[in-house]
Design goal:
Length: 190
Amino acid sequence: MRMATEAVPALNPSGRDRALNTRHHRAALGVFALIVVAHWAEHIAQAIQVYVLGWSLPEARGVLGLPFPWLVTSEWMHYGYALLMLIGLIMLRHGFTGRARVWWNVSLGIQVWHHFEHFLLLVQAMTGDHLLGRPVPTSIIQLLVPRMELHLFYNTLVTIPMVVAMILHRRPNEAERAVMRCSCAPALAR
């Protein structure tokens, strides 16, 4: 059995996945990270609007939600983002090795649950049948934690291990570097 810190060889994906996880891995990670961090920042902005600026929850829509209020209220948009994030985590996973792969997998596992919760919300919005007869679509953990705080928490739980994975990926140990198939890590000084 391999230890979590040993290098785990990258899978040998085919076709587009191979290019995405080899020569285009660094660029793809950069674009994906920008999208994820920008979305996380929207949740942080909304929390600041409520807890620092004292706005009511309907007024607190993040930055993009102010000119485009439908972004906050659309279950389709929220589900689409959760699905995009899940797909990105799956597609970019093959480029990771060793410790970075372990952290990427943690992020992926959390996003699987986050995606399920958004799917549950979308189904409720589409059918009008809400969980436990609630007046609005409600996720399982939302029965315990208010929605705004819950989704800030989910996005934080997904983003932090993803960022740790990316940092470790850019700074591989010798064993991890030996099995990397991308050029994300800077070349060693000779």
